[in-house]
């Protein structure tokens, strides 16, 4: 009996022929859209090949299908390490250990994090290429289709670490040692601290507003915006700012809130956290509240229009499965990119409004770039390419 494409790809993966895995699987994305195993192997192959954006995309789809699989969690932890997001890496490894405290790869990852606890040391570890030792490498015979962890032996190092710390101890270590050291500090915005007068009089006298807030509400929203900014949650900070701007908050507080927006970071597919993403149905209900927030939405492109300097199209949100259409959102790219309406597309864009119409100002788009023969075309990054604004 002839092997399926997925079985052939799993065999190639076991032989560490990751590029061939990608060539086999990427042309079949629509056929296997509901397959966790398919997206897991394709994402892992991209990870091993250094195609970070492809890994993020395919592992992200795998997570939508099955969130708690240990191999997926370890792959996400390794991706987080490459992005210097140690908090997320620790959380993913602990999630694995909750299911199996003897999971060797998760223990190894935590040992690495403990040994390289400074940004400089971690950067050196990543740049040396040793981070690849933390990439999951499931074999054909060993791979389990259930959500139970497949324990691959217990080494002395794992036994010592589990005995000394335990999962509970690791949680304490996570909350104590790592919080505040996962990323570099942000810009000093202490000059945006409210004055005594602003604190005492945070409200406007009269007017018509979308949100009528109390004094405490205004002060709390402003404090939340600053807190979210310092913890790298710019989208959450933007929501608080939008609430203030559409409220009866004082003009001076609104001015300070707008100034904070100037310090927000520009996200990429690699750095944009899944938990910061707002789904289309949520944004659609309160468009103004999510204005200027960044989102990653996927679907199919329609009505593609190109000029010498820009591209626009309608994103059929959720229609990448060709079954359910959540909505249609215009997308504008102030850069030139090839968009294939026959293939699923992911858009990283900023929520904008024109009248009452919601649209996205794109920063990046992602599509597979195979030609009909299955070979890579365009600007090669392995088997996938990301086209970004300049």
From TrEMBL:
- Look up the domain of life of the source: Bacteria
Q: Which UniProt keywords apply?
A: Membrane, Transmembrane, Transmembrane helix
Transmembrane regions: 36-59, 147-173
Does the record carry Transmembrane helix as a key word? yes
Q: What is this protein called?
A: Tetratricopeptide repeat protein
- Tell me the organism: Treponema paraluiscuniculi
